[in-house]
Amino acid sequence: MRGPVVSALAWGAAIGTLGGLIGLGGAEFRLPVLLGVFALAAHTAVRLNLLMSLATLAAAAASRLAFASPAALAAHWPEILAMTAAAVAAAWFGAGWLGRLDPVRLTRIIALLLCAVGLLLLVEALAGETLQLGAAPGGWWRPAAGALAGVAIGLVSSLLGVAGGELIIPTLIFGFGLDIRSAGTASLIVSLPAVAVGVWRHWRAGGYRDPQVVFGIGLPMAGGSIIGALTGAALLPVVPTGALKLILGLILILSARKLWRGAAAKLAAARAARSG
User: Which residues are CB-contacts of 99 (< 8 A; sequence separation ≥ 6)?
Assistant: First the structure.
């Protein structure tokens, strides 16, 4: 047991540091590690990743929301609240849908979503602030657009086991004109209830009954992620985040390709077994 615990702690710290440097929780990078390094089944990996996302979100919220300024979000509450409500509803639906997906199909969905997140990181790194729409606060369309984004965020959260910051923060910055600090705070407001709903539904369905997985991998990796996130935040002034996003985006795309090929191989083996 000691070997996996140390490995999980080390991986969590490394991933948390990377996530802290680019402003994410790191769950999108934990998932390929859970699938590849720790060889967890796809359903188990997603549920465990979601549980660790809740732990890291709670730690981030405890330190960030205490110093957040509600005034900075005042003009954006309609879209933030609409996004939160839609994300919670979609996360509830997605958690139930997850259990009905067969492992090969789920692996393919994970591969596609990881590839999309990787491409998003590449676009952010290359385009920077040129994607800013600069839309003024107010307008009937903003809550509707927030709700639509919330549906996508909740589904991605439940199917990848992530907090959704990789979608929430760019949406708030580029779509609704929030500054990076306010977007980070709003991301926590949106993510926490959506992730908590998904974890609660998985817990009720018995998704966390294996103590070796939860305490041998999940707990140390979550602890390492929290430590790493603090380290990443401290290193932020001296690390070129644009170049880092390019590298990590490419890593996610390559990981997605590997997962897709693995799923294709399993599907081909299953078909050969049935035909034989």
Answer: 43, 205
